[in-house]
């Protein structure tokens, strides 16, 4: 039972961290779109990327709501396999931590 008591708070914290990251991406949408476009881009390219990003973030929030509803309803809260899977999938984009490795410097 000690394993489950440790996984529930960990899962809750990873769910909240995931929510904070998605909300931050919504707030910084403009700079993220400009970062993925070439230095010279058209308004049409910007609008296309904006629509794609908003759609992806909306789907993310929708699925997040489903996951959070399942967690708070207790359906998946005490299922240790589900909790571990949720924690690992939330951390999967960061295999080396939140910061990418530095490129080798040219000497």
UniProtKB/TrEMBL annotation:
GO BP annotations listed: non-motile cilium assembly; protein localization to ciliary transition zone
Protein name: Transmembrane protein 107
Top-level taxonomic group: Eukaryota
Classification via Pfam families: TMEM107
Compartment(s) of residence: Membrane
Signal peptide residues on this chain, from the entry's feature table: none
Transmembrane portions of the chain: 12-29, 51-72
UniProtKB keywords: Cilium biogenesis/degradation, Membrane, Transmembrane, Transmembrane helix
GO CC aspect terms: membrane; MKS complex
Topology with respect to the bilayer: Multi-pass membrane protein
InterPro entries in the record: TMEM107
